[in-house]
């Protein structure tokens, strides 16, 4: 089929429109994921990947204008119009993905803190107290293989867990903690979550069979 009257065929316009919409969606999705990755402190490689996807979407939009054989002026107008749609698309993608995944790291962290607490309590029965070590890594040789298969070192957000203990014998206490999604501790000691009033932010602290702070929904 040939152009009629010097005007592009309807089919070409339709194809260009479809490609342009797809490109705009790619830009929005890439931008939304990049913002989410930054918020959640995801590794730089993933952020670069989301940014590359957004850039690829821009190139697809430009390709759509070439397919429609638009003039340079109209090409610029079309690209700018597509970019105006990007923010709401990005927000929708970010919100949807965040809602679908926000509780997954928290659920994993909650479960691992409880399981590690069970292991510490089982060992305390045999050893009449909790380990006096100050690092989560030091619990591995004391617990693994007998009380727990593997001591978790990091939380669901890939940040180091904390362990503290105080007292001895039946009056002893252990504390296990995660700084939560934002990675910022509200108090310098885990015992402070028991002794000081809130707010405690989104930190998760587990001690002697119960949470000192309320974990998010599972």
Description:
The chain has 218 residues and is an alpha+beta fold. α1 packs antiparallel against α2 (44-67), α1 crosses α3 and α2 runs antiparallel to α3. The mean pLDDT is 85. The chain has six helices and four strands; from the N terminus they run αααααββαββ. The termini are far apart. The radius of gyration is 27 Å and the shape is elongated. β3 and β4 form a beta hairpin. The chain has helices at 10-39, 44-67, 72-101, 103-127, 140-143, 192-195, and strands spanning 162-166, 173-178, 204-207, 210-211.
Q: What's the short version?
A:
This protein is α+β, with helices and mostly antiparallel strands. It folds into two domains: 10-101; 104-211. It contains six helices and four strands, in the order H-H-H-H-H-E-E-H-E-E.
Measured as a percent range, the helix fraction is 40-55%
Q: Mean of the pLDDT scores?
A: 85
Strand arrangement within the widest β-sheet reads: 1-2-3-4
Number of domains: 2
Relative strand content:
5-15%
Number of helices: 6
Radius of gyration: 27 Å
- Counting DSSP E segments of at least 2 residues, the number of strands comes to 4
Task: Furnish the topology, listing elements before pairings.
Blueprint: H1 10-39, H2 44-67, H3 72-101, H4 103-127, H5 140-143, E1 162-166, E2 173-178, H6 192-195, E3 204-207, E4 210-211
Antiparallel strand pairs: 1-2, 2-3, 3-4
């Amino acid at each position: 089929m040939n152009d009629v009257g010097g005007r592009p065929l309807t089919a070409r316009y339709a194809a260009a429109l479809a490609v342009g919409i797809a490109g705009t969606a790619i830009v929005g999705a890439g931008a939304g994921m990049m913002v989410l990755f930054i918020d959640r402190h995801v590794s730089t490689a993933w952020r670069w990947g989301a940014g590359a996807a957004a850039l690829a979407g821009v190139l697809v939009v430009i390709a759509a204008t070439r397919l429609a054989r638009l003039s340079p002026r109209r090409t610029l107008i079309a690209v700018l119009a597509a970019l105006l749609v990007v923010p709401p698309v990005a927000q929708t993608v970010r919100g949807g993905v965040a809602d679908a995944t926000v509780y997954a790291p928290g659920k994993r962290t909650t479960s691992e803190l409880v399981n590690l607490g069970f292991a510490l309590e089982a060992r305390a029965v045999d050893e009449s107290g909790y380990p006096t070590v100050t690092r989560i890594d030091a619990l591995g040789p004391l617990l693994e293989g007998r009380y727990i298969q593997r001591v978790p070192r990091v939380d669901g957000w890939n940040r180091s867990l904390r362990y503290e203990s105080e007292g001895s014998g039946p009056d002893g206490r252990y504390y296990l903690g995660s700084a939560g999604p934002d990675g910022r501790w509200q108090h310098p000691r885990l015992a402070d979550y028991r002794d000081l009033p809130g707010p405690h932010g989104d930190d998760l602290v587990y001690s002697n069979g119960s949470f000192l702070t309320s974990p998010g929904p599972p």
